[in-house]
Fold this sequence. Notes:
The protein has eleven helices and seven strands. By secondary structure, it is an alpha+beta fold. It has a five-stranded mixed sheet with strand order 2-1-5-3-4. A two-stranded antiparallel ribbon has the order 6-7. A hairpin with a 2-residue loop joins strand 1 and strand 2. Helix 3 (132-139) packs antiparallel against helix 6, helix 6 crosses helix 9 (219-235) and helix 7 crosses helix 9. The chain starts with a strand and ends in an 87-residue tail after the last helix. 29% of the residues are buried. Pathway: Carbohydrate metabolism; tricarboxylic acid cycle. Belongs to the succinate dehydrogenase/fumarate reductase iron-sulfur protein family. It holds the Pfam family Fer4_8.
Amino acid sequence: MGTKRHFRVWRGDESGGEIQDYDVEVNEGEVVLDIIHRIQATQSPDLACRWNCKAGKCGSCSMEINGMPKLGCMTRMSTFEANETVTITPLRTFPVIRDLVTDVSFNYEKARETPAFAPPAGVKPGQYRMQQVDVERSQEFRKCIECYLCQNTCHVVRDHEENKPEFSGPRFFIRAAELDMHPLDARTDRKEFAQASMGLGYCNITKCCTEVCPEHIKITDNGIIPMKERVVDRRYDPLVWLGRKIFRRDQLESGHAGEMTPSVTAGVTGVAAGLGPSGARPPQGPPLGPDGRMEVSELIASNAGGPSPFGDDQEFPLPGSELTYRHPAPGKDAAPPSSH
């Protein structure tokens, strides 16, 4: 037998609404989404709530619980005090359709505006080869379930509706960061596009998005901040600014269009960190333009630039002789013939 608990749920639509009070039975082990379903079953069958998997993997049941953006299916009732009133409201950043259901089409519009992965020229699907360390760099961002809690809590659009046309939000910043780190992505302007067209400069890295992520993605530390650093390196470095005043644009940008910036994240090693196969950075001079001149940003660099993410002597795609995976031979796992 459960215990009676007090809940306050927002009811209404785009024209307005109000908080309604419910006394609902709560059983051991239940989550907030269970309570929503019980209210629907016993008191308000017209209560609207979006949900799907009830396993924290579809991102559908996003709502605000006691003012904090959360997934209803992953918020256990045991986390609240026995006499605590639980207030459930729709996502504040997006227009309300009805009750707890909001119109999140803003996010799908921004997804369409984000440039997709660009396959490398001359390489067919099935021939892509990546170092494991490069896979690990962007794998974290692939865990996103698109619950849009990060989008909802970001104050850039939460408190400023007028910013929505220019601002894509943290969910799509990590998408851009993932592709910027991807060694097989043919586009070389991910960070510049994020700055110019996605509103990366609006973000002041308060880490609100990271705090509410149900997949515990380090959105700010591993995605947004590195992207901002790479933008600053190329666009706002005072020496680069001076170089733009002295040299032509093609002199400044030659030799760097296809390179990936070596990672500076702790724990990243190998080729992705700008290191050779032995783990030590090989001696290498700074890159030169077609006219033999160094970029002005290299004049005071303490270390020479790293090699290509694929290594200096890497053949691409990898020849079959260097692949570590082999398909099992036909019949390899078949049962041996009977001796009878």
